[in-house]
Every structure is written in structure tokens, then in C-alpha cells.
Design brief:
With 137 residues, the protein is an alpha+beta fold. The protein has one domain. The chain is built from 5 helices and 3 strands. The chain has a 3-stranded antiparallel beta sheet with strand order 1-2-3, with helices on one face. Helix 4 runs antiparallel to helix 5. The longest helix is centred in the C-terminal third of the chain and has 23 residues. It is globular and about 40 Å long. The N terminus is likely disordered.
Length: 137
């Protein structure tokens, strides 16, 4: 999703927001859900709270979708790599959600069918989470 096309106040559908300009190397290994669960369970509760609490300082380098793994990955300028399942809600702040939409979702060049729908739904989900965060203030 191009940053130029990710205006937060427009009425376009998510389908109109999807861009195929970015590519993802097909040789990128996909992670299994089990591997990611082990990774997240390895954080102590207090470490996890500190991790999410400090997200307003995150500057986004990239936001990629890996459809086969059903994971989207947020990479920050300072080297953090955050793996998130597309069908799970995470405690992302309003500022982080805005930065994600402004940066734009990078998807594989030949995204079609169910994978394209997944990208559209992810962008819609992020937009809805942002609206909810804004209305909670």
C-alpha cells in the first residue's frame, strides 16, 4: 500500500489502496505459528509490557505482508522486527497505527486471490483499529 494512497480520511475501499510496487523475495523463509508462539512466550510479562509501552518511539523502516505465513512484519529504523499474525489484534497505539498506514503495506508483486483479500483486510483492520483508538480519546 503506497503511503501516498493511505490517506486516513478518504473514502476509498481497501482494494483501491493495494499497491503492487513493492516485492518480497520468494526465498524468504516463513515462520510457523508454533515458532512465533515460542518467541512471544519467551518474553516475561514485564518485558512485554515495556516493549509495547515504548512503541511511540518506533520509526518505521518497513511494513511487509507475508501471505503464506499469514504474518505481517513491522521493522523499525533502530532494528526492531515485530512479527504479527494477520488475524490477531495487538496493543498498537494510535500513533503507531497512523505511521503504519502512512508508510504503506508492502506486498508481494504477484498478489492475487485470497492473498490479495488478506492484504485488503489487514489494511481495513488497521484503519478500524485507528478509528477505535481515536474515538476512545
Amino acid at each position: 500500500i503506497d503511503a501516498d494512497e493511505s490517506r486516513l480520511d478518504d473514502t476509498q475501499t481497501a482494494t483501491e489502496h493495494v499497491s503492487i510496487e513493492h516485492t518480497v523475495d520468494e526465498s524468504t523463509p516463513s515462520s510457523s505459528r508454533g515458532d512465533l508462539r515460542v518467541l512471544f512466550q519467551s518474553l516475561a510479562d514485564e518485558d512485554a509490557h515495556a516493549f509495547w509501552r515504548n512503541q511511540d518511539s518506533w520509526r518505521i523502516r518497513s511494513w511487509h505482508l507475508y501471505p503464506r505465513a499469514q504474518v505481517h512484519v513491522l521493522e523499525t529504523v533502530d532494528g526492531r522486527v515485530i512479527y504479527m499474525f494477520v488475524d490477531v489484534s495487538y496493543p498498537l497505539s494510535e500513533a503507531t497505527l497512523k505511521r503504519m498506514l502512512q508508510h504503506g503495506l508492502e506486498v508481494p508483486k504477484l498478489l492475487v486471490g485470497g492473498d490479495l483479500t488478506m492484504a485488503e483486510q489487514l489494511v481495513s483492520f488497521i484503519k478500524a483499529a485507528l478509528l477505535n483508538a481515536q474515538s476512545a480519546v
